[in-house]
Recover the amino acids of this structure.
């Protein structure tokens, strides 16, 4: 569904992403984990064609030219036109995404629990509802590939649980390929089928999410596991 | 209507920009009327005379041209800046990049909406100028209007064209401030260059020359061509930046 090969991005002498390869298949939720500044956002922007790679390549749907009508995304937080209502914001997105069915707007509003807020201006929404609006924009056209950067930001615990269910349903029932980035292992562990850890621009390791209980060794919490995985897989540790 | 044009039109019409710019663009007419009818105030009357503004239709025309040559450019530049800079201020820019609707279509839609609105503002101001002059019952009526109208419309069209490159500053600078700064810099350098006779080679000096800010109003040779080329370059470079820059 999406495949990155040897993806590299350099800004002057700084290497933000260094030869990263990953693949997310149809019906899979891929958790993309890393500390702040690890290179997650730069990688995602390269996957979405927003930033030009210094090296490597990205293929979407096994095609050289990406078909953006099949992609939904939430990058750099959820933002909307503050003077427009929730519904108007989604209508703009529907048209720009060339989704032909007008009812897709109402479906997305319902899916993300925004029905009570549909006629409110986006600028007056709480952070959690603004995040729901951002997610509604991403899934409105039923994309085959969904790329979400920190999608749980600002959501309350109930919203996080709902989001988890929605993502797993989209992947496992509709066959959507989903890449979710986060710096919180506990959240990704509950949503993803497979997890990749990026550190200093390099993909350190990938493993099925089902392997995590084994990694915790009984006493560690998931944050400890994350930090241990980072330490264990860093090149200097291997040396 | 294309998706990009529809969305840009809705975004613009649902904002405060149409009302704010509509009101702002009537101010030059009021200001020009103030100068023309300033005979009761000795200080203002002296200033009007020094600027060559007489209490008649030709004077009303001169006053409006001079105000538009500077103020019109500033207002138009701010609107172009707002149109592009808001995507960065509202942080909606990234939402416009990975879509089946191309980035070039979005940029062209922004320019289309902006240019259409600025031309409508020009028409509104011209209508207000004609109505105000008639209400004031200024002497030297139809003949002066026939002579002055083409210059006024030309100045407005040139100002629209010359503010389009400001979109590149607002885009590459990712916000309002660089766009406004570029507008002010171009305005000041345009007036300064016009005073040294540089309107033949510096396109942003053409409105100042045509508006009579540097003496007798005149359109420099090749003035229209350089302005058209500048507008085209502004549109092309802005579209290219959206297409190729790292976001």
């Amino acid at each position: 569904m999406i495949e990155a090969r040897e993806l590299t991005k350099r800004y002057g002498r700084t290497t933000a992403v260094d030869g990263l390869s990953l693949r997310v298949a149809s019906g899979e939720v891929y958790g993309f984990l890393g500390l702040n500044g690890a290179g997650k956002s730069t990688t995602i922007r390269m996957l979405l064609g927003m930033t030009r790679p210094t090296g490597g390549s990205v293929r979407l749907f096994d095609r050289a030219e990406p078909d953006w009508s099949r992609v939904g995304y939430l990058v750099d937080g959820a933002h909307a036109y503050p003077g427009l209502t929730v519904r108007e914001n989604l209508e703009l997105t529907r048209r720009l995404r060339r989704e032909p069915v007008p009812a897709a707007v109402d479906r997305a509003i319902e899916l993300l629990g925004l029905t009570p807020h549909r006629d409110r201006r986006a600028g007056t929404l709480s952070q959690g509802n603004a995040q729901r609006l951002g997610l509604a924009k991403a899934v409105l056209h039923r994309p085959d590939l969904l790329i979400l950067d920190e999608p749980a930001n600002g959501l309350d615990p109930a919203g996080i649980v709902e989001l988890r269910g929605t993502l797993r349903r989209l992947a496992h029932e509709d066959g959507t390929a989903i890449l979710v980035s986060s710096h919180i292992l506990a959240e990704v562990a509950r949503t993803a089928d497979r997890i990749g850890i990026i550190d200093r621009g390099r993909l350190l390791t990938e493993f099925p999410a089902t392997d995590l209980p084994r990694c915790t060794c009984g006493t560690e919490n998931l944050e400890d596991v994350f930090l241990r995985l980072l330490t264990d897989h860093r090149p200097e540790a291997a040396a | 209507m294309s998706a990009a044009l529809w969305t840009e039109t809705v975004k613009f019409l649902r904002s405060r920009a149409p009302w704010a710019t509509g009101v702002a663009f009537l101010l030059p007419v009021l200001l020009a009327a103030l100068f023309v009818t300033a005979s009761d105030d000795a200080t203002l009357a002296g200033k009007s005379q020094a600027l060559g503004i007489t209490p008649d239709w030709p004077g009303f025309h001169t006053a409006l041209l001079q105000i538009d040559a500077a103020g019109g450019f500033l207002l138009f530049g701010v609107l172009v800046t707002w149109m592009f800079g808001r995507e960065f201020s509202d942080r909606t820019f990234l939402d416009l990049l990975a879509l089946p609707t191309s980035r070039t279509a979005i940029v062209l839609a922004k320019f289309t909406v902006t240019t259409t609105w600025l031309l409508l503002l020009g028409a509104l101001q011209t209508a207000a100028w004609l109505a105000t002059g008639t209400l004031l019952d200024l002497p030297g009526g139809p003949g002066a209007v026939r002579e002055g109208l083409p210059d006024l419309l030309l100045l407005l069209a040139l100002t629209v064209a010359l503010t389009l490159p400001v979109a590149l500053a607002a885009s590459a600078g990712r916000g309002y401030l660089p766009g406004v700064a570029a507008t002010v810099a171009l305005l000041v350098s345009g007036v300064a260059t016009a005073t040294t006779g540089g309107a033949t080679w510096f396109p942003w000096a053409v409105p100042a020359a045509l508006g009579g800010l540097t003496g007798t109003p005149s359109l420099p040779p090749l003035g229209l061509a350089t302005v058209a080329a500048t507008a085209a370059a502004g549109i092309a470079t802005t579209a290219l930046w959206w297409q190729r820059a790292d976001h």
Observations:
- Residues 56 and 139 of chain B are 5 Å apart (CA to CA).
- Chain B has one domain: 3-244.
- Chain B touches chain A at residues 3-4, 6-7, 10-11, 14-16, 90-92, 94-101, 106, 244, 246-247 (CB under 8 Å).
- The longest helix of chain B spans residues 57-89.
